[in-house]
Amino acid sequence: MNNRNIILIGPMGSGKSTIGHIMAKKLNREFQDSDHYIEHKTGVDIPRIFDVEGECGFRDRETQALQELLQLNNQIIATGGGSVIREENQMLLKSNGFVIFLDTSVNQQMHRLRRDNKRPLLQTDNPRQRLESLLEIRRPIYLDLADLIVKTDRRLARKLANDIITQLPESLN
Ligand code: S3P
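Output (structure tokens, whole complex):
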């Protein structure tokens, strides 16, 4: 690995943005959030992109965002939960940073996302079932990509961020 990016992967509601923000402050790095990057670039929010371009259009934008963000160095990057699906993205993530998987239960996701209406994939009659089936497909990929796996359940974000920092390889601290 010839760069010092730290990449957070994991499902919706695993706390990637919250933890990433805290880590960036503590490690004195810049924080990037791939969803925010896409929204900033397009000038519209994620639900709007799904409406107009469908999931496939959004995924194209997501790959583009990852390509751009991962050219940077020394960043803390929060990815979208589905960014690991495409093989092309998997290669990008693997070769451009230290990958941390925030491993979260569906219960915890449900709790964190209970008031959310910004995740198009959860606008269904049964969001729990949707989260379960997404996790079933994606968890093996998260596990495969991860350099570090961190269980997030019932832990305060600040404490979790501190714990993660102590587990980072020396070259990233
Ligand atoms: C998605 C996760 C979202 C966002 C989009 C699709 C997914 O990001 O990219 O709604 O497929 O799991 P977060 O993981 O930040 O919620």
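The domain at 5-168 is CATH 3.40.50.300 (Rossmann fold).
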